[in-house]
Amino acid sequence: MVKKVLVIGAAGMIGRKLTERLVKDGGLDELLLHDVVAPTPPQAPFKIRSIVSDLSTPGEAEKLLVGRPELIFHLAAIVSGEAEADFEKGYRINLDGTRLLFEAIRKANYRPRVVFTSSIAVFGAPFPEAIGDEFLSSPLTSYGTQKAIDELLLADYSRRGFFDGIGIRLPTICVRPGKPNKAASGFFSGIIREPLAGQEAVLPVPKSVRHWFASPRAAIGFLLHAAKLDTAQLGARRSLSMPGVSVTVGEQIEALRRIAGDSVARRIREEPDATIMKIVEGWPRNFDTKRASALGFRADASFDDIIRIHMEDELGQKTPAPQRGRG
Amino acid sequence: MVKKVLVIGAAGMIGRKLTERLVKDGGLDELLLHDVVAPTPPQAPFKIRSIVSDLSTPGEAEKLLVGRPELIFHLAAIVSGEAEADFEKGYRINLDGTRLLFEAIRKANYRPRVVFTSSIAVFGAPFPEAIGDEFLSSPLTSYGTQKAIDELLLADYSRRGFFDGIGIRLPTICVRPGKPNKAASGFFSGIIREPLAGQEAVLPVPKSVRHWFASPRAAIGFLLHAAKLDTAQLGARRSLSMPGVSVTVGEQIEALRRIAGDSVARRIREEPDATIMKIVEGWPRNFDTKRASALGFRADASFDDIIRIHMEDELGQKTPAPQRGRG
What we know:
homodimer, alpha/beta, Rossmann fold, three-stranded mixed β-sheet, 39% helix
């Protein structure tokens, strides 16, 4: 039974939701939250501590391991848009930070479970109709490159027995709550989130663009499933594409119209952006996630469900006839 | 026309052969040779300089770029056996050294061609019957991990326009001349080289083991072809598996018997080594190198030819009815 958990990147959207869920599920002795900005620790019937530091500063990762957490979630990264705009910062945070963490664990000489959030950005066009489990990583962004390198390190450190790692390639998380971040993928959430909040949203790509989605609720499900999975089943291939929902932007908008009505769906304004289109063109559209499905990871049932989950979890709205996810 | 060339890893077997060939082909103004041990510069009708340093020491890579070589061959690495035995050294030389070089080129702010020797060790079992151009890199050694990471960096730095990179995944080079090195693959050459030299050779794996080979002569051909290739043809996927010859150890021995006679072939003694067998089991056996073939890279014609090339190039022997390689 895992008693001490460390969440790195705890102040981010996924980090906060994971923390909430860990507190709700209970059973821990200690939860350590880390980020570059102070994570807000919730009330919990066990000890919660926060550490604020830059993981890419040598010596900082070691401090997180003093209590020897048996389970480490490593969610920290700067997003794709920022890593593309600032080459050095991207490599420093997304590669060096992760490597310093892995090195610190190696030198601490115990063998925790490490759950690492990778990304479908490790793949780059041209693609097959659906990306299978043996398709090469050929990223078209520095962010994707950094995540692909982290996956290779995760596998080698696990093979060597320094820790017990699993990398999960999250689909694009949709609907992201809160304000837009610098990710080039931000509009995929914006076109649902803003109209539901009564605001106009900008769509920078054609409606024919197809992409791969999971709700925040599904993402937390992946993380918790990865934390308790028997990793002997993984063999040497420690990173997995997570199941998701493949829809076009047009289908996203139709789902919004079905659930929230035409007046809401009409709050989306098309305003083509060549830079974003160029980035998005290189992104995956669809996957065949046999391995992850066989290992028990479960996607949302539909994009309609993804919208309903947003309305329930973020807007506190009961939605009509919710079709539950399979997981 | 390329006038200034830098060879990193010039003291190694491939580096020495490449240097010889560059001198023979002529047409350069300057050739700069680098390694951790002093490369022996041959006589040449142009300027040859040697620099001895450790590329993984910060600041050293910059010194190699002072003359702004337009073509850089990066061949330097510690071999698989050593990278597996010494985890820290492997990452320092094979990852940090390469990254420091790439960073130095980025900061030098010009755009040389970089030809990087990668390895089929980026692939790990389980494999399809023949590994195609879209098969994932899932290395089973730290050496393979380091090379796979270098490939990702090479692609990203090229995409960003910092240099014009191409990575070539060499088959196992056979027959390696000279003394055995620490590579776990050493026996593939030893079982040909030692018997031809009148010595006994040890075979640590079963004769059914299949593997993927190229002669040193073919390898030099790959490097020179990569140096002049129109890299626009590569798109974002900057690393390629090179064509080779797929044979079993038993077929290697039969070829030796055909060319040098039974008394030579009988100098191979079977002595199973569980450690080497375990490493070799995870190695590729066969490839489908469509991309490289379409781009004009040419393999040896047969394993018989690979033996004949060794006898001609290393032993100065005319071989009977040499069947020339296609390249």
